[in-house]
Amino acid sequence: MTAAEDGAAMRRRDRLARHGIFLALAAIVLALALVSPAFRAPENLLAIGRQVAVLGIAASAMTFVILVGEIDLSVGAVASAAGVVGALALAAGWGAWAVPAALAVGAGFGLLNGVLTVVVAVPAFIATLVSYFIAQGVALTLTGGRTIAFEAAGFRDAFATGTILGLGAGFVWLLGIFAVLWWAMARTRFGAHVYAVGGDRDSARMLGLAVDRIRLAIFAGTGALMGLAGLILIARIGNARSDGAVGLEFDAIAAVVLGGTALGGGTGSMLRSAVGVALIGVLNNGLAILNVDFNSQQIVKGALVIGVVLIDRWARGRAEEGQGP
Amino acid sequence: MTRAALLRRLRDAMPYAGLALVILYFSLASEFFLDLRNFERLAVDSAPLMLAAFGMTLVILLGEIDLSVGAVAALLAVVLAQLMAAGAGWPLAVALVVVLGTGIGAVNGALTVLGRIPSFIVTLGTFAIGTGLAYTLTGAISVTIMDGGFLDLFYSDRVLGLPVPLALAGLAFAALWLVLARTRFGQELYALGANPAAARLAGVPVARRKIAVFAIMGGLVAVAAVLGAARLGSGAPGSAETLTLDAIAAVIIGGASLFGGWASILRTGLGAALIAVLNNGMVLLNVNIDAQYIVKGAIILLAVVLDRLATGARA
Hints:
Chain A is mainly alpha-helical. In chain A, 76% of the residues lie in helices and 2% in strands. Chain A is built from 14 helices and 4 strands. Chain A has helices at residues 3-35, 37-40, 42-67, 75-91, 98-119, 124-143, 153-161, 169-187, 189-199, 201-206, 211-237, 248-259, 270-289, 294-315, and strands at residues 148-149, 163-164, 167-168, 239-240. A two-stranded antiparallel sheet of chain A has the order 1-4. Chain A has a two-stranded antiparallel ribbon with strand order 2-3. In chain A, helix 3 runs antiparallel to helix 11 (211-237), helix 3 packs across helix 12 and helix 5 runs antiparallel to helix 11 (211-237). Chain B is mainly alpha-helical and 315 residues long. Chain B has a two-stranded antiparallel sheet. A two-stranded antiparallel sheet of chain B has the order 2-3.
């Protein structure tokens, strides 16, 4: 192969890496719209919006986590635990105090993740696995396997079932969180520092950036946002279960990685994660409409994530000879 | 003695002291615990965990992780039961399941090494696929195993006085201990875990060794699945939910380095014994089974923090 052909092939690969996600989204939407009248019904668009609120918030936070070169495997379990605490608080008549209670549970686990990863210097996948197990245990123990029901119409309207300008409240929360995080990542000094830390942690440290505080803030913030996600989840459904957000970490990581934010940190963007969220959201919705059950959806998504990461690695070429985890 | 040396002592003593402590606690707390029959049942029931934990020791020694263990074990148990329900004899079914498990492990390894994807992502993917398949294949209903000979052989029969599950776990222990301590392959794994770049320069075939370790992990999980299915008398899609947690906990309590390069089969065995005693004791004391996640999570937390304090923070 000549150098010119090699260059052309690399450019093709690069284009595929950058635009493949849009093609994939368009193809999936088109295919689903062709086979399913229920999918292309206008009200289904609103339904997708309702369904992606929790995933969207988790993926937005996960974008920061992955961009800074870390991972958080605990988001699903933490959102479930926070939702259970919120539901128990509502059922016990705490009223609005259920909200700070759930947020505190989320932030607490986020802080635990951050301290373990940053201060104790445990690999993030182990630290967040520990939180995952503890949060799962908390949710299971608090519910005892039961479904926690609560009566709180005002709460449900505020976090999910109400509408603002025709949009579901959950989706509005997502838009708000997304806008703030997008702004923080793309327009602030903090965002620039996150890219720097994710790109080359040692250099960032030598430049005098507050590397550890940035990582700690991202883990804690992710936890707090998972508290919010837990609230939106229980508000939408009207009750809480210990496995309410099971698999959320997987969908969130999938959305971020599908969007093109590289595992290992340094490159990526919120807008690309939004496309990833749309893709996973459309896929979840479409597969459900086609009566594909949850377990088969997991098979499809598992294969999808591995496939996309493989294509991404291939498209980026063999720039770095990767070793270790 | 300096503070660091003291912490190191404490960390190294943890599997022994922890095991002694939980045995002491449950002996005092439950009248049923200190009983030879209970100990034998405890040991037999812990065999699948032992096998998974031994495999996980090799994986963590290389600085990798396998989050798919529980899902793959459940899937293989289901496949085993379905093969036998379809008329396959148990030798054929067991052989196929071991081959399948080894193959799944090799795929995990190949994707990690050749695809250059972090192993926690690869195995999160195979976790999702495995769980999904186990439930889809069965329609979420356990598949009963009718073959009484199989059930006896892999649960209650004895060889040389030992129940078969214990004998198999002991065999795996001896084989892996020998491999790690006495063979070139074992030396290469330590070198690879401690410093992959140096190991590569020294001529260690990095890709082949990593894939081999994930394949061994898969094979051991398959044997664990066979033992689990024999114990339950069925292949159940939700049967191995805590296996991943327990196996990782056993290795970490055993003091393996989370960054790779140091691990020990013997100490993993102690860690697995601690987890097994905990599982048994919590049942005897009627502790809410759900609380085990919190207890085990807290124990891993303690082990991890001790280890990091002892080795000094490394950013």
